[in-house]
Structures are given as C-alpha cells and as structure tokens.
Amino acid sequence: MTDPGSQAELVRRSLKRRYGKERRFRLYGIAAVSVALFSLAVLFTDIVSKGYTGFIKTTVTLDVHLDGELMYLNDASDPEQMAMADFQAPIIKALQEYFPNATSRADKRELSRMTGSYASNQVRDLLKENPDWLGSTRTIEFPAHDTVSVYVKHAGDPGYSIRLTEQQQRWTDELLSKGVIDTGFNDVFFTSGDSREPSNAGILGALVGSLLTMAITLVIAFPVGVAAAVYLEEFAPGNRLTDFIEVNINNLAAVPSIIFGLLGLAVFIGLFGMPRSVPVVGGLVLALMTLPTIIISSRAAIKSVPPSIREAAQGIGASKMQVVLHHVLPLAMPGMLTGSIIGMAQALGETAPLLLIGMVAFIVEIPDGFFSSATVLPVQIFIWAGSAEQGFVELASAGIMVLLAFLITMNAFAIWLRKRLERRW
Amino acid sequence: MPTSDLLPLVLLLAAVAYGLAFIRSRAVAMPLGGIRNLKALPVYYAARAALWCAIPALIVLGAWATFEGKVIQDMVMASLPAELAPQSAGQASLTLSQISNLAAGKLDPAMVPEGISGAATLLQELREQSSRFKALLVILIAVLGGTFAWTRIAPHINARKSVERTLQRLFFVSAAVAILTTIGIVFSVIFETVRFFGKVPVTEFLFGTNWSPQTALRADQVGSEGAFGIIPLFTGTLMISAIALLIAVPVGLLSAVYLSEYASGPVRSVVKPLLEMLAGVPTVVYGFFAALTVAPFIRDLALMLGLEASSQSALAAGLVMGIMIIPFVSSLSDDVINAVPRSLRDGSLALGATQSETMKNVIFPAALPGIMGGILLAASRAIGETMIVVMAAGLAANLTANPLDSVTTVTVQIVTLLTGDQEFDSAKTLAAFALGMVLFMVTLLLNVIALKIVRKYREQYD
C-alpha cells in the first residue's frame, strides 16, 4: 500500500510541468493558425500591392498635326497610299514641339519610343475612319510606351528596372509637369483583348472566354450531376454496378486536373476531331472535372431530405418518380445549387487542363462564339505572368484581382443561398 | 445548318410536340367524360411526346456532330493526289491546316499546289453537304418521333409509366458518365503509352536517370536521340511534395486541433472561413506568388547566407504548395478528430488528464489511421498539382537532393511537352502520355489506399 498523501504530492509536483506542457501545446496551435493566416495575408497583400498599378494607365496626349506631306499621303481614302504612309512622323513632330532640340536620328528614335508601339496604328485607324482629317490638327490620347509607363508608375521601386535613357527620363519628367503625360483609370484593361504591348492589353477577351466556357460547363455538369445523384440516392439497386459507379466518382474527384486535360486532348481533339483552343472543348473538359464535386454535394443534399417527406408522398399514392420530382428535388435544390456554384468556382480557377487543349494561344480578338478561339482568365494570368515585358506583371496581378473578385462573389452567393433557402429538419 | 442552331430547333420541336399532345390528350378524354378516364394525366402524354421527339433526334445530332469533323477530314485527306499525300503525321497536320485555312479564305489559293486547293473545295462541299443532311435527318427524326407519340395517345395507354421509365434510364446514363470518364482517361493514356514503349523501352523509361526529351529536328544533328529516364522527374516531384507536406501536415493538423479544442466560438467562426479561403484560391495565383515573390525572396535570402540558390528553387515551389494544402489537411483532420467518440475524450478528461494529454494520448492514437489517410490524400494532391510547379519550378531535370536547386516534376514535363506545336507521333508527345499514365496510376493508388483507410476507420466508430 502506498501512502495516499505522497501520491497526491507526486501529482501536485508534476502539475507545474504538465500545465507548462499544456500551455506550450496551445501555443503550437496558435502558431500554426498564425502561420496559415499570415500566409493568406502575405498572399493577398502581395497581389494587391503588385497589381493595383495595373488599373492605372499612362497616357500621352498630343496635338497632332496630320500633315499629308510628312506622312507621304495625299488621299486618306486610298488604301494603297495608306499602306505605304508613315504615321509615326506626325507623332514625333508633335513631341518635337516640346523638345525642339531633339532633331538627330537618335533623338527621333528615342522620341518615337515615348508613345506605345501601336501609336502609329492608332493614327492610321483614325485617318481610315475620318479621311477628311488629313491636314487638320487633332488632339489624340496615346498609350505611353511600356518603359515610360514603368518609369512613371514605378520609379524608385527596386522590383522594376528603369529602361529609359537619361534624356527620355528628363523628357518624361517635363511632359509630366506639363500634363501631357498623365495617369488615369485603365479602361483599356476592361475593354480589349490581349496584346503584345502591355498598355494595349486587356482582360475582356479572357473574361468572355471564361463566360463561354463556364456556360458549357454549367449546361452539361449541372443536369448530369443532379441526375446522377438522384439515380444513386433514390433508384440505384445495391449491386456491383452501383458500387463500381460510386468508386469511380470518388476516385475521379481526386484525379489530378491535368489528367482531364490529357483526356480532352486524346478524346475530344484527337478522336472526335474537335478544334483546339475553343470554349466548347474547354467547357466539356471542365464539366467532366467538376462532375464528381456536383454529384457528391447533390447526394448530400438529397440525403438531408427527411424520409418522412418521401413516406408521406408515397402514402397518398405518388409513384417513386413523382416523389422524387415533386418533393425531394425541390427540397434538395438549394443544397444542390450551393454545391454546383462551388464546383463552378473551382472550374473557373482551373488552368492546367486548359493548357493541354490549346487554350493558351495568343488571341487578340474577343471570342464571339463557342467555336471561336479563346482563352480564359486563369490562363491569361499565366500567359502574362510569364511574359518578358515588365508591364505584364502588374496586369497579371490585376487579372488575379478580377478573378478573385469573381470567385469571392460566387462563393458569397453560394453561402447566402444556403443561409437563405436551406431548411433544417 | 450548324449544330448550335439545330439544338434549339429540336428543343422547340419538342415543345411543340408537348403542346400538341397535351391538347390532343384532353380532346381524347372529353367524350369519355373528363381526364379522369385516361390512364395518365395529360402532362404525361405530352411529356412522352416531347421525349419521343427530342431524345432520338438529339442522339443522332450528338453522334453526327461528334464524328463529322473526323470523317470529313479523312475523306479530304484520302482525296489528295498521290504526290501530295503526306508521308508523316507532322506533314499530315501541316497539309490539313493548309487545306482548312484555304477553305476559310485565310490563305491565297495561288500560294498552294493545285491538289491542295482542290481538296479545300472538296472540304467546303463536304461540310455543306454534311450540314444539310444533318439538319434534314435530325428534323425528320424529331418529327417522326413526335408523330409516333401523337398516334399513341389513347385512354388505355399509361403514358406515366413509360415517361418514368425513360427518365430513370436517363438518370442511370448520367450516373454512368463517371464510368465512361474513367474509361476515357484510361484509354487515352494507355494507347499512346503503348506506342511510346514501342519507341523507348520500358526499362529505360522507368530506370533511366537522364531526361532530355528534345529530339532533334534533323536526323544528322548531334544528340538526336533524346533521353526518357523518369528518375529525375520522380525525385523532383517527391522533393517538392515532401517540402509541401512538411509545411502542411504540422500546420494543418495543429490548426485543426486548436480550432476544435481550444478556440472560442467567435474566433473559430472567423478563422475557419479564412482558412478555407486558402483552399479556394486558384492554383495559378499560387504559381504567380511562388514565381514572382517567394522564389526571388528565397534566392536573396540564400545569397545573404552565402548559399548558392537557383532562381527557380524546389524550396519556393514546395513552400507555396504547402500553404495551398494546409486547409486540405486541416479540414480532413478536423473531420477525423470530430469522429472520435465523445466518450473517449470525456473519460480521459475525467481521469484528470489535461486537454493536451487527452489529445496526444487518447484522441491522436484513435484518429491516427484517419489522419494517415488524410495525409495520403494530401500527398496525392501535391504530386498532381501542376500550375505552381509549372510557374515556379524549373524545366531542367536535375538529379539532386538540394532544395535550393531547380528541379522539374512529372506535371511540368507533361505541360511542356504538350503545349505549343506537336505531332501526335513523335516520341516527345507520346512521352507526355506515358508520364500522364504514371501520374494517374500513382495518384489512383494513393487515393484508393487513403479512401480505404478512412472508410475502415469510420466504420470502427460508427
């Protein structure tokens, strides 16, 4: 027999150590949560700090004298002349108004790199639309050259290197003070497709591509997913085939997304001869990928409908199908919709399988149908993130913000829907 | 008529059939003394007519639209004169794109040989014919189907039963799509993999230590062979996944424990959704973060410590991937910890154990199988993750154990080999499918084991 007093004493003496351990364990937990939250905070701060400048554009506004002699052009409605004319010259001339001493060949080259590479095309298009402008003086807003834009927005930022010559920097400073070079809200970003030049590149093409792709995904994945869930929950006999279907669904949910890209490449493009880079194929691949998510959440929603509802309906003579269509489905619909929206949000952010089916091409035009070449938001971000010009990095970040805004809206809508419509029994 | 116009047309026809059948079924019932003398409600007669009208037509339309491109392509290629017939797969795809560009008017007919422009005309003709026949056939089938159902509207026919049977079959077909997808995946990788092993021996693929898939453009170039040893890809994948799991498992597990055992209600309700947000961020965003922020940071840090670091280090990709799978690990562990019966926990606490002692000595051992399953699932996700490594890990297949070096992974190589121009026949393209096969097998194995463990564990306490 041990002395109870000493036993209690033993426990009491160990208490301090044990409480210390308890505190430390708790601290580990707090540390783990902090690490996770810190990463989230760093991620978002990084994206926003890199990307907010993407929403700002740098412009050069010049009074351009559209001098026919300077452009070797005497009739702007003649396509042959238009093809040969020099539209850069009047822009340089307009800049020389501010810097009369810049006349040497080298100076002119530097002047021509103040406005974006497509500035001369802008003049050409304006003249093509308004042939009578020839000879007049017009105020035209040009996007600034990428290097000028980087200098204006990021001078002093160690993450960027300034590629302007000293003379160009002087010019830029002067034009800035005169208000010729100005910054403003980047409307180009929301109204145009991709471009080789950061100041002309926009996200609209990718956005439309994403919407077209998502439309296909939704139209296929939602009905098929719901139907499959109904079959498995309500009709499936408990046999081997049903088991096999269930195993398949669970495994497909965990198959890496890139494998679905291989499937799309081999089956839809290789076997069926469908075209590359089109929203239809992208939508099909993403539909197959999101199907397991939708089936699993729809099954959970159907399961949560209490059996009493089914029994009551059957009790007054409804057939099995009537029970399902008239009672179970409407009651499970909020849960199914929530699951589907979350699945669609996943599909919207998915990149890897779309790379394999060729949606990674450089596409300037805004896609106009399910069979026109397109890219999608995440792929556009991927393309920009890998581009050499510095201006594309902030565009990629800005694109990420747009993408995240869509995802957050979708998820918030799903949560709202669940809170609003879900019934608890 | 293009498919995109035919589809709404068929649906419209089905709607018309629905309306007509509805009216007729009521008309049939009238002289008998109302619809209660029919075997089924008028809506079922109407629905049956709509199904008869739409389903066969849609099946034909789907099949036609699926195979028309391929069939026309083959017919056009077969029509080429012998001297223009392509010798290799690469040539074939070139000729084909020439023909289709010509047919689309993007290419000047003067720029190509006679036979090609003839083929382009044929392509155009075949497309138009196919489109016409398709429209005719589909509309005919829809009308015939609708008419057939129309004639079978009679009081003694129970339309409800046939509608319900059809619907149930449709539901089954939907569920079977999962099987079809799996079969599709397996076959799409198997065929190309078998062809790949016809060019490169299996043993070289599985045990070779050299990976450089760039085959030469000309036969006489030096090093035209290309090496397809998968070992460096495996070690790269494993290293990045291991780094990711080293981060994600402790952080995820401890977060789950803290949130379920210690955190107060309000803290939990804020922190949990924030953690789940990490799971909702698209992988391309993590890739961007890894490539443009974390990787340069690690390189600078290593330089400061006097270490040599690549600008695309395995460490950067692994770290960010670890952050990505934190919520995955934490939500799985949360489920598992909550599944441990309350009585075990209460018993331990009642004996005077502290919360952490209960956790470490009672709940963890009980939850261990489930947690292991969760970790396996997380590992399978890390191995299959693509965008982070494509953007932040390198392309060079280094066989190294240094996490500051650049390594490449299976998924990176699949993407690299399959983006850009490709021929369906070269060893390079086929290698991507072989890699896909390996990836599919490995992740499938991990998933099956993990799901089995988790299920067995659940049954234990249910």
TrEMBL record, chain A:
The record places domain ABC transmembrane type-1 at 207-414
Membrane spanning residue stretches: 25-44, 203-232, 252-274, 280-302, 323-348, 395-417
The protein's superkingdom reads Bacteria
Membrane association type: Multi-pass membrane protein
Q: Identify the keywords attached in UniProt to this record, alphabetized.
A: Cell membrane, Membrane, Transmembrane, Transmembrane helix, Transport
For the keyword Transmembrane helix, the answer is yes
The places in or outside the cell where this protein is found are:
Cell inner membrane; Cell membrane
Name the predominant localization. membrane
One Pfam family name is BPD_transp_1
Q: Which protein family is it in? A: Belongs to the binding-protein-dependent transport system permease family. CysTW subfamily.
Q: What is this protein called?
A: Phosphate transport system permease protein PstA
Q: Which organism is it from?
A: Marinobacter aromaticivorans
Gene label: pstA
TrEMBL record, chain B:
Q: List the Pfam families.
A: BPD_transp_1, DUF3708
What keywords were assigned to this record?
Cell inner membrane, Cell membrane, Membrane, Phosphate transport, Transmembrane, Transmembrane helix, Transport
Q: Which residues cross the membrane?
A: 45-67, 133-150, 170-191, 238-259, 279-302, 314-333, 362-379, 430-451
ABC transmembrane type-1 domain spans which residues?
234-450
Question: What domain of life is recorded for the organism?
Answer: Bacteria
Q: Keyword Membrane: yes or no?
A: yes
The record describes its membrane topology as:
Multi-pass membrane protein
Keyword flag Mitochondrion: no
Q: Which InterPro entries match?
A: MetI-like, MetI-like_sf, Phosphate_PstC, PstC_N, RhesusRHD
Q: Just give the chief location class.
A: membrane
List the subcellular locations.
Cell inner membrane; Cell membrane
Could you say which protein family the record assigns here? Belongs to the binding-protein-dependent transport system permease family. CysTW subfamily.
Q: What does this protein do?
A: Part of the binding-protein-dependent transport system for phosphate; probably responsible for the translocation of the substrate across the membrane.
Write down the NCBIfam families for this protein, in alphabetical order: phosphate_pstC
Q: What is the name listed in the Swiss-Prot or TrEMBL entry for this protein?
A: Phosphate transport system permease protein
Q: What species is this protein from?
A: Marinobacter aromaticivorans
Q: Which gene encodes it?
A: pstC
